[in-house]
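Dear Dr. H.,

I hope your travels went smoothly. While you were away I took the liberty of generating a structure for the chain from your last submission, since the lab meeting agenda had it listed for discussion. I wanted you to have the full record in hand beforehand rather than looking at slides cold. The sequence, exactly as received, is reproduced here:
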Amino acid sequence: MATVNPWVRFQNLMPRAGRYTVTITSVNTDGTSMAARRDGKSVRLNGGLVAVGKKAWVEGEQIIGEAPDLPTVTQYV
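The corresponding predicted structure, in token form, is as follows:
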């Protein structure tokens, strides 16, 4: 059912942050974590709920949970 609330309708027009996976390299005491992206770059993210060495889901700059450790396949066309 569609909403008639103008604020909710406006928020639905805004793009959502992309979701991607990282590998956690360290968990800091200030509530942040350092992680490695698939391209090798290191990023600081908010959240420390995933252990070092595990994969995590990231949305924006926030860790939202642990991701499954699945193999990655690159297919060239």
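Two observations you may find useful: The first strand starts at residue 19 and ends at 27. The chain has one helix and five strands.

With kind regards,
E. W.
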